[in-house]
Amino acid sequence: MDPGSAGLQESDKPLQKDVHYIMLSSFVAFVVVLGILIFVHELGHFLMAKWFRVGVEKFSLGFGPKLIAKRVGETEYLLSAIPLGGYVKMIGEDPKEPLLPEDEARSFNHQPLLSRFLIVAAGPFSNILFAMLIFMGMFMVGYPSEDSTIGRVEEGSPAWEVGIRGGDHVVAVNHEPVRLWEELTERIKESDGNPLILTVRREEKQFEVTVQPMLRDRKNIFGESEERSVIGILHHTLASVVGISNPVSPAGRSGLRTGDRILTVNGEEVNNFPQLKRSLRRVRGTSIELTVKREEEERTLTLSLTPGELQALQADPEKVPTLLGIFPAELFVQDLVEDSPAQAAGIQAGDRIVAIDGKILKSFAELQEIIGRNPGISLSVQLVRGGKTLTLPVVPEEFLTKDAVGKKVVMGKIGVLSAYRPEPGPTLSVRYNPFMAFYKGLQMTWDITRLIIVSLIKLIQQVIPAETIGGPILIAQLAGQQIQYGMLELFKFLALISINLGILNLLPIPILDGGHILFFVIEGLLGRPLSMQKREIAQQIGLFLLISLMIFAFYNDLMRVFK
Length: 563
What we know:
By secondary structure, the protein is of the alpha+beta class. It has a four-stranded antiparallel sheet. β14 and β15 form a beta hairpin. α2 (113-141) packs across α11 and α11 crosses α13 (487-505).
């Protein structure tokens, strides 16, 4: 099933207005983000130079012609026309320029090797420190994090077998308290397959279960397979959007339709499917009043039960929604693409797909995975329509797409739109004291730094394709997207780009800070600096590489825009 393969067309004027707003907000966010990061970077060089009493002639945000200039003391502060970088010009930095005798002690090139090293390194490390301070501030103010509530449980998984269900809240693992989802998943990952004792809260009750994790091949963020301990739980859940496949079931008789979202059960509010199941299990009478949202309109429906149906429900509370004829809308077909394989096979809107080639489906993701890896291969699709089971052959058509790391892959699709509605799990705002916030900020900065370094290695190894490299247009697009979600997301993005800028500037490419650091290391090993000729050749090579990379990144940006 392909979410987004069919949609509604909106009028041009609101769409045009939205596009203009997004473009403007992206531009403003880009200018703010880049301006702050350049300022932080150059401020690092500036302050370290001042610390070692090196004279600073110019402090510029941007390159090229100056737009605004103001001299304070010996330093001229500039805002220049090209906002893609900046520079700090120190006395004696260029050995070709004449140097007055009285300025020799304050010149950059006459400083000890360690001083020059620290002045150059201060720029990129200021960006990394800046990111850490952003994260620290976020942890002090309140950082939204997923709590340890289980959204859904995979049927047949270790968690399912011991009785854990969607909506359960894990409060401890091996009697050690957990609050956050990342803490819970980290404990499972670290178990190495050994049994875990989970303390679980369900409504007003608390109980313990012992679950045996299983090892499963999972793809990491680079698309590489690795074995992990899992118990079959997810944090996100399903919305209380329902699918109705049998018109003579209690749900079908009440007038419920596939795609309806149930808001209340006998006046009790429900926000997701696990809550809906719990509310339905508490029903004791033969009449259930539902508030339903259908196409932005709310309506009230009454679900009536016969005495026999009520008796069946009371005999097996676990199966209450199924016995009522209510299913998650996850595996129901909402619409079809014209002339698609699904339409040619006879699949219709409202069908519930239950199995493929005899394999019972448990989730929408499982259905996508099977269809995706079988392009051009005939599949036997079992579905339920009007209470009857049908089996139809479907051949997924091939299409070219990109995986998580941007590699081009051939996948299969059948051209249906699911009524699937994922629902984010609950979050809580985590606040820490300044000392703990400092530690958490440092930890997050290190995690992201390590990920960026590994990503660069994977890029060189061609695990990540070069097409993923982005430039200023991509940064503007991403900044615009983040600001739509609020200032917190923009600050997180600012921290991420700041670390990126710091790491990239430390690469040993002449003309970058890392190239200068490389020269200092060579000078330390040889006991003398490289000759001016060799440094100039290296600088020219570095400039060529940097310009080539910028052109390539800009080309990738344009290709994304036009696609």
